[in-house]
Design the sequence.
C-alpha cells in the first residue's frame, strides 16, 4: 500500500465556465473517507504539479449518509462522499459533480429540480386550515413497514443520476419523487389528494417517462424499493386511466 | 392525463397486443415449413383468401407496429448513455433499444422480401419456394440466413423482454419477487419461441 492517495477531481470555477480536471496527492490515512480527504486537500490546496490553487469546494452536512448533501460521482458511480471509504475505492480516485444537475462550483450542484419534483407530486400531508382536526387514524403495521422504508429517502439524487431516462434537459420527475407520491398516497390523511398526485404522474415528465432500466434501485444508498414504488404507481395510474376512459 | 402519457401507454400496449400476439401466431405458422411446400403454401394462402385479410394486416399488424416503431425511435433519443452503471437490467434496457432498431430494419427487409417483392414480380402464392430458393441461393443464401436468424432472435428477445417491462409499467408485477417471477417467465418464453423459430427455419436450411 502506497503512503499517498491520488485524487482526480473534475473542477469548475463558476456555473458558466467550462470544467477541467486537476489531480491532488495527499498522504494516505487508513479508514479515511472522501470527505476527510477533501478536507485534507482544503488545508493545503496544492495540485499534483505543486501549484497553489483554490481549494476544492463540496457540500456536506451530516457525515453519516442521512442528509444526502455530499452526493457526487466517485469513480464513475454516484454515492455519498461521507460513506465512501477510500480503502474500498480503486486508486486514483476520480471525483465528479453529479451530471444531471447544473454545477454551481467544483463538486457542488443545484438539486432544486428534485425539490420542485416533490412539490409537483405534493409530497406532503394535506391539512386544510388551522383548526384542530383531532388525532389521525391509526396506521396498520403492514403500512408502517412499507412507509418507514420509503420515508428514508433523503432526496440525495443517486437514483436520478444513475437513471438513463433522467436528462439534464428533460422534465422527468425521477424515481425519488414517484416513490414519495406512493408514500403519501398510502398515508391516511394525505391520501385525500391521491388523485392530484396521479394527475401529476400522468403528465409529461411523469411516470410514463420511466424506461425500466432499474438503475435507480441499484444506486439507492438507502435500499429503498424504488422499482416497487414505480410499479405500484404504475398500477395506480393504470386504474385512473381505466376510470378516465369509462367514467360517465 | 395528457397525450404524452397516453402515447407511451399505447406504445407499451401495442408491443404486446397485437404485435406480440401476432409474432407468436406468425412463428406458429412457420412450423408448417416442415409439412412441405403444398401444405405451407395452402396455410399461408388460406389467410389471404379471407376478404378481411388485408384489413386485418393493416389494422392489427402494420398500424400498431409502425406506431410502436416510430415512438420507439423517438424514445431512444431521450436516453443518456451511462456505461459505468453495469447492472443486468440496465444492459437489458439498452439491448431492448438496439434490438428494436435491428428488428425494425429486419421487418422492412422481410416485408419487401416476402410480400411486396413477390407481388411486384408476380410470383405471389409460392411462399415456400420463394423462401427456400432465397435460402439456397449460392451467392446471397448465407447472408439471407444470417439476417433471418438475427432478425428472428432480435424480435423474440424484444418481445420477451418487453413483456417483462410491460408488467412493471402497468403495475401487474409489483414486488421484487413478482418481478423476478415475470422475468423467469419471459426467459422461458424466449427459449421456447427461439427453439420453435429455429426448428421452423431448419426445414429449409
Sequence:
Amino acid at each position: 500500500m502506497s503512503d499517498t492517495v491520488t485524487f482526480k477531481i473534475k473542477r469548475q470555477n463558476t456555473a458558466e465556465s467550462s470544467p477541467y480536471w486537476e489531480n491532488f496527492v495527499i498522504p494516505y490515512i487508513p479508514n479515511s473517507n472522501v470527505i476527510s480527504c477533501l478536507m485534507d486537500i482544503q488545508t493545503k490546496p496544492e495540485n499534483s504539479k505543486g501549484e497553489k490553487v483554490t481549494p476544492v469546494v463540496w457540500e456536506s452536512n451530516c457525515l453519516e449518509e442521512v442528509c444526502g448533501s455530499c452526493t457526487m460521482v466517485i469513480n464513475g458511480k454516484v454515492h455519498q462522499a461521507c460513506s465512501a471509504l477510500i480503502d474500498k475505492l480503486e486508486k486514483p480516485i476520480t471525483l465528479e459533480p453529479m451530471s444531471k444537475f447544473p454545477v454551481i462550483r467544483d463538486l457542488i450542484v443545484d438539486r432544486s429540480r428534485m425539490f420542485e419534483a416533490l412539490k409537483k407530486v405534493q409530497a406532503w400531508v394535506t391539512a386544510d386550515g388551522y383548526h384542530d382536526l383531532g388525532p389521525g387514524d391509526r396506521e396498520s403495521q403492514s403500512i408502517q413497514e412499507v412507509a418507514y422504508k420509503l420515508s428514508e429517502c433523503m432526496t440525495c439524487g443517486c437514483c436520478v443520476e444513475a437513471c438513463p431516462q433522467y436528462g439534464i434537459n428533460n422534465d422527468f420527475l425521477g424515481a425519488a419523487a414517484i416513490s414519495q407520491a406512493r408514500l403519501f398516497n398510502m398515508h391516511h390523511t394525505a391520501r385525500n389528494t391521491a388523485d392530484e398526485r396521479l394527475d401529476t404522474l400522468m403528465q409529461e415528465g411523469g411516470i410514463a417517462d420511466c424506461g425500466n432500466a432499474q438503475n435507480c434501485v441499484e444506486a439507492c444508498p438507502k435500499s429503498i424499493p424504488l422499482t416497487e414504488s414505480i410499479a405500484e404507481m404504475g398500477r395506480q395510474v393504470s386504474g385512473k386511466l381505466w376510470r378516465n376512459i369509462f367514467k360517465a | 392525463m395528457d397525450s404524452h402519457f397516453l402515447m407511451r401507454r399505447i406504445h407499451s400496449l401495442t408491443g404486446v397486443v397485437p404485435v406480440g400476439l401476432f409474432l407468436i401466431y406468425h412463428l406458429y405458422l412457420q412450423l408448417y415449413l416442415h409439412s412441405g411446400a403444398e401444405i405451407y403454401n395452402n396455410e399461408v394462402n388460406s389467410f389471404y383468401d379471407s376478404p378481411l385479410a388485408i384489413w386485418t394486416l393493416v389494422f392489427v399488424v402494420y398500424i400498431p407496429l409502425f406506431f410502436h416503431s416510430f415512438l420507439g425511435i423517438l424514445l431512444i433519443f431521450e436516453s443518456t448513455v451511462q456505461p459505468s452503471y453495469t447492472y443486468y437490467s440496465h444492459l437489458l434496457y439498452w439491448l431492448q433499444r438496439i434490438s428494436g432498431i435491428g428488428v425494425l430494419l429486419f421487418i422492412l427487409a422481410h416485408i419487401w422480401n416476402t410480400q411486396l417483392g413477390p407481388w411486384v414480380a408476380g410470383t405471389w402464392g409460392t411462399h415456400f419456394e420463394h423462401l427456400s430458393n432465397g435460402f439456397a441461393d449460392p451467392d446471397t443464401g448465407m447472408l439471407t440466413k444470417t439476417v433471418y436468424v438475427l432478425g428472428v432472435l432480435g424480435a423474440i428477445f424484444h418481445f420477451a423482454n418487453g413483456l417483462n417491462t410491460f408488467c412493471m409499467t402497468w403495475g401487474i408485477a409489483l414486488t421484487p419477487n413478482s418481478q423476478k417471477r415475470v422475468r423467469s417467465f419471459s426467459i422461458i418464453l424466449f427459449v421456447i419461441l427461439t427453439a420453435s423459430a429455429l426448428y421452423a427455419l431448419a426445414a429449409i436450411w
